[in-house]
Amino acid sequence: MPPEAAPVIAKWIDYFQCEFKISKSRATKLGDYRHPFKQLGHKISVNNNLNTYAFLVTTVHEFAHLLTWNDHRNKVKPHGEEWKVNFKRMMKPFLEKQVFPADLELAITSYLNNPSASSCTDLKLSRALKRYDMLADHTRLEEIPRHSVFSIKDGRRFKKGEQLRKRFRCECLDNGNIYLFSPLAEVLVLSTGT
């Protein structure tokens, strides 16, 4: 995470007596919060493959879950109004310290108007965060032409089709099935469409 953010996060870990773990990359989530159970306290984990700014946003997201659980236990929705209020409140010190670059701060401020369950579902914020990734051999699906052939991490090959509302309809060349992909999905281009 950005160095100037670390003291705030360290205070939160200490204050909430939270076990904070940096996890190996998980395909389905960037971070996770587990409320106290039996004799165990709060647990937060954040993926190790995130860029510094995505790591911080994900960390704040998970701490907002912790604060919401402390205030309401499991009587409210995980990403309901209570969580949104806590997320905005917990993001405030980092915005005040100007931890984020200007383009990212603008995207975060816009996202804070109505934060969603995941920063990944907000395309504007996700695009802004991905600008700081260090992946050189991958491209976002939205950047390649229609009918291009690409592969994903597990090696399956796909042909890019039309964009529906937000997602692209893609045919798996290995089994003929149709899958919907986020425009921000990271793919390895095998051949460009015509």
Automatic annotation (TrEMBL):
The lineage of its organism: Bacteria, Pseudomonadati, Bacteroidota, Sphingobacteriia, Sphingobacteriales. This is SprT-like family protein. One of its GO terms (biological process) is response to stress. It holds the Pfam family SprT-like. Residues 17-93 form the SprT-like domain.
